Amino acid sequence: MELAWLEDFLEIVATRNFSTAASARNISQPAFSRRIKSLETWVGASLVDRSTYPVHLTSAGNMFLPRCQEMVREMYRLRTDCRNVAGASSQLITFASLHTLAIYFFPTWVHSPGMPNAPMRTSMHTADFLECIEHLTSGRCDFVITYDHPDGPPVLEAGPFESLQIGQDRLILVSGVDSSGQPLFTLDPAESDEVPYLAYSWNDGYLGKLISVIRSRSRRPLNLSIVYQSSLAEGLKHMAVAGHGVAWLPQICVRKSIAQGELVQIGGQQLSLQMEIRIFRRTGSSNRDVEALWNFLAQTSERRLDGSISIAR
């Protein structure tokens, strides 16, 4: 059982409408409905009567409501008391990030010269795009680090959120190499054979959609045949190195493999896409360490990206 489920329940009690409640919680209605259902499963009884409009609470829901309100108040009171006892200096700054950025971007970025309060006490939750966004909107992390592109899915464009660009990366098409260092696969239009393609899983929330943008811009159809799928760029990279097919991967992820001659970029710049690396937060924070980091990043952003921030070039 999660605190977010209790807060979701209180929101549906306040609005009596799933769509309105989901919007207030800054998540999609299907995701909101799943969380209410998860709470009901945990309780072992239906709490909301969905057959009426506006929705009403069941008898179990009416019994659960005052205890729910009390539990939420007590949890936040307990958190405040613990923080006061421990002192502000002991607080963690919490992040959620895509796996690739957590592995290849965050470790160097968080120790960039001039970062405030170094060494910072941080924790990282790695997940897919949608789960990262849900972590931020539900208050389970201070920051989300993710890719962003004007033609990609919108990222927290509405609600009390703000963002800064902290780096850049490029999505490129790569192939493994043969013994002479030549690509195992090419996109030569003269070749009629299908090219084995290592793809992101159908439910990938961001990079898969950016790849669709790249393919839609191609001047000719790409004769690709999916032979493997994964939600992890790291998994696709190792399959490409092993010679199983071609894959679109963030440059930050494959830079070392290209330098070592394990992979090579194919298709040229027309089959690549520049992406921003952005950090998002909920507007306003009572954590002074979070504010100090945000103010530092905002000041750095005003000077444009330099070598200490744009480490994913």
TrEMBL record:
Keywords: DNA-binding, Transcription, Transcription regulation
Pfam families: HTH_1, LysR_substrate
Superkingdom, natural source: Bacteria
Residues making up the signal peptide according to the UniProt record: none
Occurrences of domain HTH lysR-type (ranges): 1-58
Entry similarity comment: Belongs to the LysR transcriptional regulatory family.
Name used for this protein in its record: LysR substrate-binding domain-containing protein
